[in-house]
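Protocol step 4 of 6.
Sequence for Carbohydrate kinase (Streptomyces griseochromogenes) entered exactly as in the expression construct, tag removed. Do not edit the line below.
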Amino acid sequence: MFVGIDVGTSMVKAAAFDAGGRELAVQARPVGLDLRAGAVEQDMEEVYAAVVGVLEAVTARVPEPVELAGLTGQGDGVWLVDAAGRPVRPALSWMDGRAHDLVDQWLADGTFETVFRRTGSAMFPGCPGPLLAWLDRHEPKALDAAAAAVYCKDMVFQRLTGGARAVTDVSDASMPFLDPRTRRYDNGVVELLGLSHRRGLLAPVADPVATAEACGAGLPSGTRLANGPYDLPACALGAGVTAPGDGLLIVGTCLAALVATTEPDLGGEPAGLYISTDRPGHWLRAMPAMVGTAALDWVLKTTGVRHPEVDALLAATPPGAHGVRVLPYFAPSGERAPFVEPRLRAELSGVCLESTPADLIRATCEGIGYAARHCLAAAGLTGSLAVCGGGTRSPAWMRLLADVLGRPLRVVEGEVGARGAVLAAAERYGLALDAAAWTEPTLVVEPDAARAAYYTKGYEEHLERLAGARQRARR
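Step 5 output, structure tokens:
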């Protein structure tokens, strides 16, 4: 039995697989977010307790010995821990928007672009650079008390392995301090952000084959455990996206587009990031938009519609949603891909007294699709496209998405991030698994030619509306 652990933003999951990649059991536990006035924080003890709980539950359901465990989780944010991996303060989530003034300042004075040209990372308010700089200005005592500023899965890994020294992997370290070409922290970037005196808080980047051998609560003692990659590259592995040009779209809380590449290009508009992988010379060009299914969740809550009703409502109104349009930029910290606009907000247009909840829901799904098309184009998609995430549970939305994107979708269902975490762990330990069998798509959704042509025109109109919204956001 192989176990993958995925420490998500709102849900922690553990999944058990057999040697052929068949999903045997899944256990999940929700974790809370503390949202207030632009601040988004998480209780580390609650997160860690959820990890232990799902591990205990999944190993109890499938009593075979655990051969290997892989760990993944949400990226970015700042998780301040002491030498034993215990929290110094609540974690600052990747969704936190308190550092937007710093990002605005860096956008204006050229620091933002300089960092991108050096590391391929387009900073946003919830990534470690701005958050550490904000803490240094507003909560310096928290940084003084910390032994390390790590990422979510690093905190869990340190605790599961008995409080050994904090480490991270190249994928999590990619934003914003890692030079993707040298795979080392760029101290010049640390200095640019005014954090040289906090350099010691950056966790060492572990060798890709570094692992833990003795685990604590939740797994039998002695279980082999690997830390990383974080959830975006883990999903790429779990969906079989490794060949240059092939892409993955994660339709989850965050709408993330990733394309595999062997040629990092630090030119062009500064946006997204290059995620380093365990294989030197291979990267993922990532365009992780701030809001995916969260936008639809907000619309459903506002209209009083339940998730099981979405498919029927998508069929109840035609493409174009009777003229209703949605720019789906609902995040309080604005947008980070395929452009950075910290003050951008969602916009609804074309609504009148005759508009229905079905119109609003379809327009939201279409808007998310247009945003995905924008991200995939910016990331350089030229090959096949896999899709995973909670949005894949809606067949009607997948058909709509194939039409909006104008290309077939390889839909990969199940716990894709946990699956990728196991595949990464197996590679680090030199254990041969049949990756093709593990990443076989559930189905392929083909686009309708006529609707795809309609949505190509709709995409051009979306880009025009977006340009106007970006101008308004800067006023």
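Step 6, annotate. The chain has two domains: 2-232, 289-411+445-473.
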